Amino acid sequence: MEKENKAKEGIxxxxxxxxxxxxGIERFAWILMRITGLGLLAYFxxxxxxxxxxxxxxxxxxxxxxxxxxxxxxxxxxxxIGMCVYHTGNGIRLMLGQMGYGLGKPGRPDYPYKxxxxxxxxxxxxxxxxxxxxxxxxxxxxxxxx
Length: 146
Hints:
Elements: H1 2-6, H2 11-14, H3 17-20, H4 25-51, H5 58-66, H6 71-99, H7 120-145
Helix pairs in contact: 4-6, 6-7
């Protein structure tokens, strides 16, 4: 019964450090991947809705575009840039890891059961992905606030 309840935690289970032990950079990358995925989905739906206003005429289209030409709109677009770059970079890291690149040869799982996928190369890739996403956001802000 206890195991069944833990499986139904939902989003609360994402950020429950007691359930997963040490709350390291790998867990942070996992949570950030889900948050950016949901954020990009919300942006995609909003973007489709906003773009559909072109069918309502030039006045409605221009009014709709004015929302993005504010300080808040620029900050939102910079966050979208960061989410897109992080989600893409981390997805590539995960695909390469799934194919076995950068992980080394598989080994026998002996105590203390440290997975090979959580080596320094993987952690460095997570930090690099976060850094590149931050640089992309900074560049986007520099262009928009120019």
